[in-house]
Amino acid sequence: MAPTVSAAGPHDSSGRRMAVPRSTSRLVTAERDRAREIRLCAGLVSMTIRTTAVQIWSFCTPRVSGRASARGGQVGCCPRTWAEGQGPGRSHVRPGRNAPETSGADHGAVESRRILVGCDFTYVAEVSTPVIFQVQPAGSAQVAVESGQWASEPAVAVRGYTDLYGNPCVRAVLPAGRSSFRYQAVAVVPDATEDACEDAPECGPDALPDETLIYLLPSRYCLPDVLGGEAWCRFGGLPPGYRRVQAVCDHVHGHLVFQYGSSTALSSAADVNLARRGVCRDFTHLAVSFCRALNIPARYVFGYLPDLDVPPDPAPMDFAAWMEVWLGDRWWTFDPRNNTRRKGRIVIGRGRDASDVAMATTFGGPLLESMLVRAEEAAR
Predict the structure, then answer these.
(1) Fold exhibited by the domain 205-346
(2) Counting CB atoms within 10 angstroms of each CB, which of 94, 314, 371, 376 has the fewest?
(3) For position 321, what pLDDT does the model report?
């Protein structure tokens, strides 16, 4: 039995998150004691049977907003082979089960903004190690992806594919020794918050589209069967629809305290509900669990969330997690962690929970030496 490990950000030896200067480049540098860091950083150390895959899930720091920019310097050119039907600026999402959030009525022309997104990984491997990265934005009708580029030092071939849930991924092999990988793209997003409609209705289970039914079921971290009694006690008496889902988010946002390192990879939504502490993935898992218990399809989403028209925050930039809920005839975005509508959400992956959207999976035990996340408005 080999460990599945997840990591997110530097900490000191006592488990406190270390401050990272907010500069033109904010490199999240790992500590020398890697086992200690990985155990603390996202609380996502997990043991799985019959696997040697080491996964890094979405990073969720104690932040509401933050700004990052690319690290200076260039890395070597990395050959890129796109899977059929994929490529920079194209949507990787297949229709059906994991179609993107759908738009409501046409509200007329909306201005757009260009967001520079991406991340850098630096690994040290004892032997050549296969890896899967999931950090590319999932293009959609609302978000256009331009100039997507992979680079590495030394040069390594990568190839793209689409996973079971329609998320864009790439495969490569880390060479023995130190290697660096960089992904960078520009995402064109509407200069508007996500849609909202307080009158959006719930659908009975018999009226739900077939492809949404999977998002009613228990998954590794989301446990509607365990939390069903509490869900119906707290929310069962509320009028069905958008307002009830918002009441779920209001409760989760107030019930949980954000505390980095307070949960582990074995922490389910039921665990964090009792502990009343967690990181953004835990906020999302709990809200998803309550919605599923109420027979409302809900899926886990992670991606880039830049600072657009919000106060700056000194915390390092990280990935964010939120959820999408099926109401009426479409998916709607809800964010139990921040509990507010935001501009510039750029989806990377959707799935049942965080286990479906690991941003890096290595089939071996390489050392993640450093990482940088970028999500900021591009210079005009």
Answers:
(1) C8orf32 fold (3.10.620)
(2) 314
(3) 96
Q: Which of 251, 362, 236, 349 is nearest to 303 (CA)?
A: 349
What integer pLDDT is reported at residue 312 of this predicted model?
78
Amino acid identity, position 109: A
Q: Tell me what pLDDT residue 374 has.
A: 94
> Given this model, what pLDDT does residue 52 score?
46
Averaged pLDDT, groups of 10, the chain, 380 residues long: 42 47 35 34 31 57 34 29 33 49 56 95 97 93 91 95 95 97 96 96 97 98 98 98 98 95 92 96 98 98 94 84 97 96 96 93 93 90
**Using CA atoms, how far apart are residues 268 and 50, in angstroms rounded to an integer?**
21
Distance CA 268, CA 354 (A): 11
The reply to whether omega before 154 is within 30° of 0 (cis) is yes
Compute the distance between CA of residue 298 and CA of residue 332 in angstroms, rounded to an integer: 9
**The pLDDT value given to residue 75:** 27
pLDDT in the model for residue 49:
26
Whether the CA torsion 135, 68, 29, 16 is positive or negative: it is negative
Q: Which amino acid type is present at position 180?
A: S
